[in-house]
Each structure stands twice: as C-alpha cells, then as structure tokens.
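BUG: 3D viewer hangs when loading the predicted structure for this chain

Environment: internal workstation, default settings.
Expected: structure renders.
Actual: progress bar stalls at 90%.

Input used:
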Amino acid sequence: MNNTENKSLLTKGDLKKCWLTWLFNNQACYNYERMMGTGFLHSMVPVARKLYKEDMEKQREALRRHTGFFNCEPCFASSIVGLTAAMEEQKAQGAEIDDDAVTSVKSGLMGPMSGIGDTVIQGVIVPLLLAFAIDLAKNGNVASPVIYSLIMVAVVFGISYTGFMMGYKKGSDAILKMLENGIVNKIISGANIMGCMVLGALVANYVSVSCGINIQQSADSVFSIQEQLFDAILPKVLPLLLTLGVYKLLQKGHSSIRVMLYIVAVGVIGGLTGILG
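Structure tokens produced before the viewer hung:
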C-alpha cells in the first residue's frame, strides 16, 4: 500500500516522533503475552493523536488495533512500523482498510524481517564491531568502548530510519518485492559466509590453547610439540579443536554452564599435569 495517492496528513515531524518512539521504546513492557506489542502500541500514539486530533474515541479505536502480539528484530521492524503508520494515515483518509488487514500485514512481515535483522545485526555487524573494539582494547586503547558504541549507534539509527521511511513511502509493495526477488536469500547467504569468517578470526585471535609437552631428545636438544609440530604444520589447530568440541557439546544439548565447567576442568587438569601450556 502506497501513501502517495492522497495528501499526507502526517508531517515529517510526526513521522520522526513515531520512529523515535519505536526506536527507544520498542521493548518497553516486554512480556511473554505480547512481546513487543506494547512498544509497537506506544509508537503509534503520535500517529493516532495527529490523525484524530479532536476525536478521542477514534484515537482509542486506532490504538486498540495495536494491542496484540508483535515480535521482530527492532532495527528491521522499523519498516513495519512505517508501513503501519502509512496504513493508519490512509484509513483516516477514508481508505477501506479493516483492522484485520493491519494485523495481517504486521504478522506476515514479522518473521521475514526478523530473519534478515537477526542475521545481519546479531550475526555479522555486532561480532565484527566487537572484534574490532576488543582488539583495540587489548592494545591499550581506552577509547575502544566509546568507538564501538558510537559506530553501533550510527548503524542502528541508519538502518532503522531508512527502513522506517521505506515502509512509509513505498509501502508493502517495496517490502514484499525485496522479500520475493531473492535479495533476502542473498543477504542471509552472504551474512552466513561473513559470520563463518568472523568466527574463524575470533577463534584464531582470542582462543588460546597450547600443548606443554616437551620431549628430551638429547642433553642439549628438546623437542617442543607445540612449537616444532603444531605451529609448524597446523598453526592454531588446538584452539580450532576446542571450538569444534564446544560446538559439538552444545549441539548434543549440553548447557552452556556445563560446557564452561568442562573447559575449566580440562584447563586445570591440563595445567597441573603439564599437558597444556
């Protein structure tokens, strides 16, 4: 549904209020019954007040449409918020849009937008930025938390605002076109590849395991298994094996706390016996 046929009732300021309300309150009153439903309702308050200034009953009616369940990745969910604002505007202008249509659009887009958002934000952007900030911090840069926060804020604001305006101006047609023309699959596929690369880099840089076994070959010669075997043939193989072992345990249903205890036990035993360096 496009918002270009009739004169806009919502100003740019109204749209910014709607977007900012969602951005800062999307998980307000987060609960198991409605998840982010209350946050979505709150974001629609500026829209309802502007569209039905003098009619409190219509304001209540508009807001009741958004008291149901809603759960989506917050940044990419902004496009759904913008689309819903456009639908409310068209409904106020006399378009035949019933309550079920609004609910159906929201429900239908929650899953696909969450799939994109969780993959891109949680699977790629956050790990990349954290790896960058942690590396700076290890080198003594005390500004690394500030740098990470500023970049993350810029990314979140940029994606959220762009998605919101796309949903409002282009409507469901633009969102559905994006979902249907293969862009989503390409994004997810690229994000998965990037995620594997990030994970590999994190393992190589931040997982530290070494073999402490040395073999006395002669009075003046000691063979170090770590330096002369592993480092020469398969560098970082022990961190890789540890990571794969943890992954396998988690796949088998072991809790993260139990896996951490396993790692502590292996570390203590390996350190006391000299097997691990």
